[in-house]
Design brief:
It is a single chain. Strand 14 and strand 15 form a beta hairpin. Helix 1 packs antiparallel against helix 2 and helix 3 crosses helix 4. 18% of the residues lie in helices and 36% in strands. It has a single domain, classed as Glutamine Phosphoribosylpyrophosphate, subunit 1, domain 1. The chain starts with a strand and ends in a 14-residue tail after the last strand. It is of the alpha+beta class.
Length: 272
Amino acid sequence: MCQLLGMNCNVPTDIVFSFSGFQARGGLTDVHKDGWGIAFFEGKGVRQFLDPLPSAHYPVAELVRNYPIKSKNVVAHIRKATQGQIALENTHPFLRELWGYYWMFAHNGNLVGIDVEKGSSFLPAGGTDSEKAFCWMLQELRLRFPAGYPGPEGLFAAISELTVQIAGLGECNFLLSNGEFLIAHASTNLTYIIRQAPFPTARLKDQDMTVDFSTVTGSHDRVAVIATTPLTDNETWIRMPPGTLSMFREGAIEAQAVTKAGPAEKIRDLGC
């Protein structure tokens, strides 16, 4: 299965430390060799890097690791292919526009039974179940809110209902962001940590790297990091209960919902 990494903050922050450990899992300390990607929101714009090669040994990943891009919302992914060939079009995170916002989506899991229906406003370019699920979700949101963006509260309620349907088709850990917040769904494995004053010294599990966050952050900074499994071995990470959806905003959890689904059933129209 793939691995996810997300960051949500109350001030623009770089993800160099976390990405350094995450990058190693793409072919060095773990088996996720089928591509990697990372996206940084900057205002309403997105700076995105994608490649179907392993992140642990690829120069562009090294560039990202050594380039302190600051952002309030980051979505990253390293891939172990289950559906769709190893190719750039199947590399996460996926990007689409809706209501004048860019949306980023990355998925870890395997969804069975998603069909592609022509005529949707959102069509997959590749062959993954992940991109199909993303297209279906955006199409459903457009149909539910024809007048435009409903705001975080209404959006979160709708995504909670849609996630129940998607989760009924299989393993469905995902990260979703439009630059204002980051939504994380735990189907099986997803963990997080919120760092704020007094800031700790953290040590990576996958690289020989330690950082004293008190020397690189302000007293009012708050940073939430979400990962499939903990990135550090000297901090307390919290495992998200399977079957829960969480909205991170300004470096804290703003809303949560239960999304446990019953037996798998076909999603209505699957309009992607």
